[in-house]
Amino acid sequence: MRGKIITFISLLCVALLILAAGCYDPGGPVPEEKHPGAEQAWTSEDVDALVLMEGEAVYSPAPTHNGSPPAECDYIHFLRFRLKGSSGNPCDADAVLVLIPGFLGGANSMHNLGRQVVYMAKTLRDTDLEIWLVDRRPNNLEDLTGVNAAEEAHDTQVAIDYYYNGTEIDGGTFQGFLESEDMPFLSEFGLELAMEDVYTIITTMVPDPEVRRQKVFVGGHSLGLSLIHI
Fold first, then answer.
1. Single pTM value for the model
2. Closest CA to 76 of 127, 169, 139, 147
C-alpha cells in the first residue's frame, strides 16, 4: 500500500511539473518597465576627501602552548577609519564602533561599510565617529602578495600565476599552501583568543575605563555579532 502511495505522489509531481512548463511563455509580457537607478547622494571621491583609513597593530604575544607561531602572529591587526584632520586620539571622538567580521571574513570584508558609515555620521549627524575593523590572528598567516598585485594590475591572472604557476612578484614566490600539521599552534587561536584580542585593542587604544563605558561600542557581522553575546 505504501509503495502505491509513493508511486501516485511521484506521478502527480511529474504531472504538475509538465503543466507548469506549459505555462511558461518566454515571449510573454514583462510585469513592468525597468526603473531608473537611484541618484547617488555622494561619491567615493566625497568619502575619500573626508575619511582616513589606517592599518593599526597592537603587540600581544600569541599563545605557545602547542607550537611557536610566526612572529607576525604576535600582533593584532585592525583597520581604523576616522575623519581626516581629527586629533588621532580616539578618546576625542564622539564614539568608537569596534566591528568583528563573520566566520570566513577579515577586516577588509567590511572596508566599504567602515568608510561610508564614518562619512555618513559626519555629514548627516555631525558626529565624529571612528570605526575599527578587527582582523583575527589567523589572517596574519595569509600571503596576500598575489591578490594585492592582481588588484593593482586589474588582472586576476596575476594572482593565479603567483599562487599556482610559480611566478615571482617583487623577487618572491609563493611558498605553498600549509596543512594542519604545519600549524599546530592554530589550536590555540580560538574563541577565547579572539575575544581577548578585541578587549586588548579597546583597552590599548582607550585606556581610560570611564571613556570606554561612554564612547566604545562593539558589534559585528554574522558570527562576529554572535560572539559578543556569548
1. 0.79
2. 139
